[in-house]
Each structure stands twice: as structure tokens, then as C-alpha cells.
TrEMBL record:
This is Extracellular solute-binding protein family 1. Pfam families: PBP_like_2. PANTHER family: EXTRACELLULAR TUNGSTATE BINDING PROTEIN (PTHR37945:SF1). Gene3D superfamilies: Periplasmic binding protein-like II. It comes from the Bacteria. Residues 47-273 form the PBP domain. InterPro entries: ABC-Tungstate_binding (IPR052738), PBP_domain (IPR024370). It comes from Natranaerobius thermophilus (strain ATCC BAA-1301 / DSM 18059 / JW/NM-WN-LF).
Length: 297
């Protein structure tokens, strides 16, 4: 009888130990899952997704500024580089927290439609008309922008040169299209007009290879000038070629998933006096002139 009781006690003890181990394992798994979820939550809130234009990327400005923002705030900025039109579409779908773009009328429409909270001006540069170094259309001799665009149109019509367009609904493409329309020059279906559907850098590379005319923001041209030796500025300094940039947080009332707090911190960062000063100085050392000018008005 003594042995039977011993066996029962041993079996009971083993069962208790098993139950305790199961509970301990469940507790450990629960804590691990909780910590993982907390970690994921922290990771998600520490990442800020910004959709911006190829010009800000190609110029190198974001490489200069965003590490400062990251060091100050702890936010990691995930940059999506596309044309302005695509950036606005990304904002409309809620796949970005903030936009940095350059098509003012489209930006206002984005905000008015409820997709953005407010447009904040941050900087500007200008567009320049580029052409082959031999300038067969003599655009560099034009008296005004109307004449410059008309000369490009005429030489294309004559079959002696071509025009390389981004063709991607970017801010640069929107400006270019506006100019053709302003001066009543119909480029629809013209063989000399090449709509590439590319970013600014790739468009300039193509124009350089084809010795074509094109339009670019000044910052990207200056940053690439040494590698596109067949191109030069043939017309500049017209009020219609001003190129303002705006930054817009995506509206959390429209897309609850956006990191609105981080977006507002980035806005505050860009409009700060010291960062505006850095924008005004960017490019001077390397190119002899700034690539952008501060603008918070």
C-alpha cells in the first residue's frame, strides 16, 4: 500500500509540474507577443513616409536636411521619389504622411479636396530652358519667353531639332504644358516632341544624348551639369519660370493611418530659421550659387 501511495504522489507531482510549466510557457509567450506588438507599434510611429519630387532628390537637398531631422526627432523618413502628380496621388490614397511637391495649383486643389490639411511654402527656385550647345533654334537670342518657346516649336516643326519632355505629370511637366498652352503652341502628336515619362535626371540624360531642347528646374540642372555636357541654359529669368515648393501633411480625417504628429514636426523643421538658412546656402560651395531659395511667406 505504501508503494501505491508513493506512485500516486509521484504521478500527482509530475502532473502539477507539467501544468506549471505549461502556464509558465504561456506567460512567456504572452509577454513576448506583447513586447513584439509594442515594438512594432513604436517602429511604425517612428517612421515618416514622405512622397516628393525627383528634383529634391536629384539635387541632393534631402540628403543634406533629413539626417538632421532624424537626429533631432528620432524619426526615420522613408522617401518616395516620384513626379509631383504621382506624389499627390500617393497622398490621395493615404500611402504617405506628407508631401513635398512643386505644382502650386494642384497642391491647392489637393488641400481643398480634403486630402491635405494645409500647404506650407518652404522654398523656391526656377525653371530654365535648356538646349544643345550649338542652339540651332537661336533660343538664346529670344527677347522673351513667348519667342523662346515659339523658336523651339518652329525648329521642331521644320525637323531640325527635338524637345524632350518629362511627360510624367510632374510639376516640371505641368509647367511645360502650361507654357505651350499659354503661347498657343499645339504639341499634340508632333513627331519632334518626345514625351518620355521619366524623372528629371533621366530626362536630362536623354536630352543630352539627343541634343534636344528641354525644360528643367535649375537645381537639378546645376547638380548634373558636368555630366550633360551637350546641354546649356538657353533661356532663363522670366517670372513665369518661378518654381515654388510646398509641404503638405496628409489629412488624418481622410486617412486615419497617417503619422500626422510626425508630419507636423517635419513641417516645423522645414520652416525653422536655421533650416531655411541651410536651404539658402545649399549648393553655393559646390556650384557657386544656391540651388534653392528659402520661402515661408
Amino acid at each position: 500500500m505504501r508503494y501505491v501511495c508513493h506512485d500516486i504522489a509521484l504521478a500527482y507531482s509530475n502532473e502539477v509540474i507539467t501544468i506549471m510549466l505549461q502556464k509558465t510557457l504561456a506567460l512567456i509567450l504572452g509577454l513576448t507577443l506583447t513586447l513584439t506588438l509594442i515594438g512594432c507599434s513604436e517602429d511604425e510611429t517612428s517612421v515618416l513616409t514622405m512622397a516628393t519630387t525627383t528634383s529634391t532628390e536629384d539635387s541632393g537637398l534631402l540628403d543634406e536636411l533629413l539626417p538632421i531631422f532624424g537626429d533631432e526627432t528620432g524619426y526615420e523618413v522613408d522617401v518616395i521619389t516620384v513626379g509631383t502628380g504621382q506624389a499627390l496621388e500617393i497622398g490621395r490614397s493615404g500611402d504617405a504622411d506628407i508631401l513635398l511637391v512643386h505644382a502650386k495649383e494642384l497642391e491647392k486643389e489637393f488641400v481643398n479636396d480634403g486630402y491635405g490639411t494645409e500647404r506650407f511654402p518652404v522654398m523656391y527656385n526656377d525653371f530654365v530652358i535648356l538646349g544643345p550647345t550649338e542652339d540651332p533654334a537661336k533660343v538664346s537670342e529670344a527677347n522673351d519667353l513667348d519667342e523662346a518657346m515659339s523658336l523651339i516649336y518652329q525648329i521642331g516643326k521644320e525637323g531640325d531639332s527635338t524637345f524632350s519632355s518629362r511627360g510624367d505629370k510632374s510639376g516640371t511637366h505641368v509647367k511645360e504644358t502650361t507654357l505651350w498652352e499659354e503661347f498657343q503652341l499645339d504639341i499634340e502628336g508632333k513627331e519632334w516632341y518626345d514625351s518620355l515619362g521619366q524623372g528629371m535626371g533621366d530626362t536630362l540624360i536623354a536630352a543630352n544624348e539627343m541634343r534636344a531642347y528641354s525644360i528643367s528646374d535649375r537645381g537639378t540642372f546645376l547638380s548634373m551639369e558636368d555630366s550633360i555636357e551637350n546641354l546649356q541654359i538657353v533661356f532663363e529669368d522670366d517670372d513665369m519660370l518661378t518654381n515654388p515648393y510646398g509641404i503638405i501633411p496628409v489629412n488624418p480625417d481622410t486617412h486615419e493611418n497617417v503619422n500626422y504628429e510626425a508630419a507636423n514636426e517635419l513641417v516645423e523643421f522645414f520652416v525653422r530659421d536655421d533650416i531655411q538658412q541651410k536651404i539658402s546656402e545649399f549648393g553655393i560651395e559646390e556650384y557657386g550659387q544656391p540651388l534653392f531659395f528659402p520661402n515661408t511667406d
